[in-house]
Every structure is written in structure tokens, then in C-alpha cells.
Amino acid sequence: MEDLSLHVLDIVENSINAAATFIRISIIEDAEKDLLTVEIEDNGKGMTEAFVQNILDPFCTTRTTRRVGLGLSLLAQSARETGGDISVKSVLGKGTVVTAHFRPNHIDMKPLGNIADTVTTLIAGNPQIDLFLQCSCEGRGYRLDTREIRAALEEVPLNASDVLCAIRNDLIEAQQDIFKPHPGLGSSQGAGNVSL
Ligand SMILES: Nc1ncnc2c1ncn2[C@@H]1O[C@H](COP(=O)(O)OP(=O)(O)OP(=O)(O)O)[C@@H](O)[C@H]1O
Ligand SMILES: [Mg+2]
Predict the structure, then answer these.
(1) Which of 14, 59, 78, 86 to mutate to test the pocket of ligand 1 (most atoms within 8 A of CB)?
(2) Of 23, 57, 61, 70, which is best to mutate to test ligand 1, by the most ligand atoms within 8 angstroms of its C-beta?
(3) Is 111 inside a domain boundary?
(4) Which of 45, 46, 86, 160 is close enough to 100 for a disulfide, judged by CB 3.0 to 4.6 Å?
């Protein structure tokens, strides 16, 4: 996986496949502690404790199209390469929380990538699901809540093109404001000027 935004896309896909109706994505950097925490929480169908215990094994999947499931094991690999780790907590019938810790100053830290495109893509493809995004770094913060946008739009769907365009522009600006380029994060290929 090239950057963190693609990991986020992948992990949120798991929540969508688990029939979540609400997904919270949080990306919090504590520069002083050299810690970037990415967390994805959903209210989907959850998993049993026994299933969660093996979840980082690539052969642990409920996919029917192929025998391996790579999303969580690749995220764990990316986090561990920096000296971080991931944790998965789930309650059957209630939901799941995936938390990944990264060390942004590590040489193997991946760039954040294009969070604006990831979130816009998710909203465009799943307008019925509510997303709550929170980002923060060094006192700078941003939140996007599709429940609020949905209420303000009344009859207009979330995936109407001008709505998506406005959401994407807002996200691009927020990402530029919040996450300053980081020596350990390097630069991402092909994600425009919002990549860090
Ligand atoms: N949020 C979630 N809610 C419920 N089950 C989940 C969730 N995330 C993962 N799972 C379960 O864990 C399995 C492994 O997930 P993982 O992302 O590693 O692989 P995958 O989704 O099966 O395949 P891939 O990510 O390669 O497309 C999934 O098949 C699914 O059964
Ligand atoms: Mg997956």
C-alpha cells in the first residue's frame, strides 16, 4: 500500500462490507510524541473474539472471491515497519474499532496521501452511510460529519456532484492546514499538492 489514505480506504471497505451505517475515521498526530494514530470505528456486524484473534493472518477472511484477506495484515505491516502497531477490537452485533499507531519520524513511514480523495470516493460510492472524520495535529483540527451535511442539504443527495466537489475542496484545504509536511513522511507520488 503506497500511502495511509489507501489503507484508510481499505479498512473502511471492511466496515462497509460489515453493513455499517456509521463510520468514524480519526487521524491524530502528536508530533512531540512522534505518534500518528489512525482509527476507524464502525457499527457494523462485528466479529467474534476467536475470529479477531487470528485477524492479522492473511488466511483469515470471509471473502468468497479469494482465500486471502490482506487489508488488516498490510496495515499492521505498515505500522510495524515504523515501530508502531495495530489493535482490533470488535463486539459481535455491535461493531469494530481498528487502531493503528505509526512513528512519523521513522524512515519507513508512508506518506499520508490524499485523504480528500479517499473520503470523497467513500461518500460518492456510499451516500447512505454516515461518515465522521476528525483530524488533528498540534492544536489544529478539522471535522467533517455527513450527518450534519445531510441535514443541511435536506432533499439533495450527498453524492450530488456539486456537493462532492465542495466536500473535496474543503478536505483538501483542511489537510493542507493541519498536517504540515514531515521530514519522516516523505512525499507521495501522484496525489497532487495535498500529499504529505
Ligand atoms: N470492520 C469489520 N467488521 C466486521 N468484520 C471485519 C471487519 N474488518 C475485517 N473484518 C473481517 O476480517 C476479515 C479480514 O479482513 P481483511 O481486511 O484483512 O481482509 P479482507 O477484507 O477479507 O480482504 P481484502 O482486504 O484483501 O480485500 C474480513 O474478511 C472480515 O471477515
Ligand atoms: Mg479488507
Answers:
(1) 14
(2) 61
(3) yes
(4) 86
